Amino acid sequence: MSNAEYIARKYLKKDTGKKRKKSKSSDFVEIQDEDVAGWRNEDELAGYSEEATLLQDQPTIVKDENIKDLDEIAIVQKAQEATVPTTSRWKPVGSTEGSQGREPVNESMENGPGYGLVTGKQVSEKARRQRERENQEMFAMTDEEVRKSKETVYRDATGRRIDITLARQEARKKLAEQELEKRRQKENQLGEVQVRQQEEYLEELERQKNVPLSRYEDDPEYNQELKERVRWNDPAAAFLTKRNTAATKAYQGYAPPNRFNIRPGHRWDGIIRSNGFENRWFQRQNERKAREHEAQMWAVEDM
Predict the structure, then answer these.
(1) What confidence category does residue 140 fall into, taking pLDDT thresholds of 50, 70 and 90?
(2) Cα separation, 169 vs 162, whole angstroms
(3) What transmembrane ranges does the database entry give (predicted)?
């Protein structure tokens, strides 16, 4: 007796546990149609319905052992009652079912060169059709559409489109408002004398509308106007007398100018009591006019 047999006999025990009984397996009958291509005799298919024909696309499993000896038609009918028929994915050649929602493939090379090799004739034909279509669209456009297509598109720094007509209207409106504001400021700076002179000037313009165009030396109104005109180098001003028509007497000596062009009264003692604003105002006006003149001369220097 070997050592292994002695150890197994003395120290090892056999597994006496109960074994689990195997469940009795049920027999199934599986029928597969060997005629995959579908080339069968029409007489054999005379008793088949459309649903029974669709069931032949997949293998049929029959769980009942009593129908093993039945023919194939009975098996198919029994399986049809036990199972729900499934739609086959095989479609007959030329069938339109399932292709209704699919768009036809564009083979005219309208959207691209297509697949595979492309001949030069096909490319030329595509270019010719495209030119004809563009010409038809161009001739079909109205004058308004042609004018809009030729308009220049203006955009700002952010890329937004600018309506040039609306922008010009806003610019003209803004310019008119600025001119009105300047005129209002200028009117506010005028005094009573300037306002009265302006009104007299406007009245004179209205009166001159009715004056005849031909005026001669014997026109009394014109002669009176020339006599009343004051000239600084008139030699007869020393001995000619003029009736004073002014409402108030003015100072006859030198007087500094002011922005309202009003001379002081005859009782002025000649002492300037201004704070210097009038002098600075005239100085700024002269500087502004000098800069404008210099800019204009510089602009036309190369002309």
Answers:
(1) confident
(2) 13
(3) none
**Which one, of 242, 243, 245, 265, lies nearest residue 253 by Cα?**
265
Domain shared by 42 and 69, yes or no: yes
Identify whether 245 is part of a domain: no
Say how many domains are in the chain: 3
* 8 Å CB contact between 62 and 28: yes
Q: Whose CA is closest to 207, among 193, 221, 219?
A: 221
Claim to verify: residue 143 and residue 168 sit in the same structural domain: no
Q: Which residues lie across from 155 on neighbouring strands?
A: 161
**Cβ atoms of residues 52 and 76 within 8 Å:** yes
Confidence of residue 8 (pLDDT cuts 50, 70, 90): confident
List the domain range (segments joined by +) for residue 169.
164-208
Domain-embedded: residue 295: no
233-290 residue pLDDT tens: 888 877 776 655 556 788 888 898 888 888 898 899 989 898 999 999 999 999 999 9
Q: Are strands 161-162 and 154-155 parallel, antiparallel or unpaired?
A: antiparallel
Strand partners, 161: 155
Q: Is 233 part of any domain? A: no
pLDDT of residue 174: 94
User: Is residue 133 located within the same domain as residue 168?
Assistant: no
Q: Pick from 107, 132, 103, 105: which is nearest to 122 by CA? A: 107
Q: How many CA atoms lie within 13 A of 251 on its CB side?
A: 14
Residue 17 lies in a domain: no
pTM of the model: 0.24
Task: With H, G, I as helix, E, B as strand and everything else as coil, classify residue 178.
Answer: helix
Cβ density class 102-140: b for 16+ within 10 Å, e for less: eeeeeeebeeeeeeeeeeeeeeeebeeeeeeeeeeeeee
R_g (Cα) of the chain, nearest Å: 58
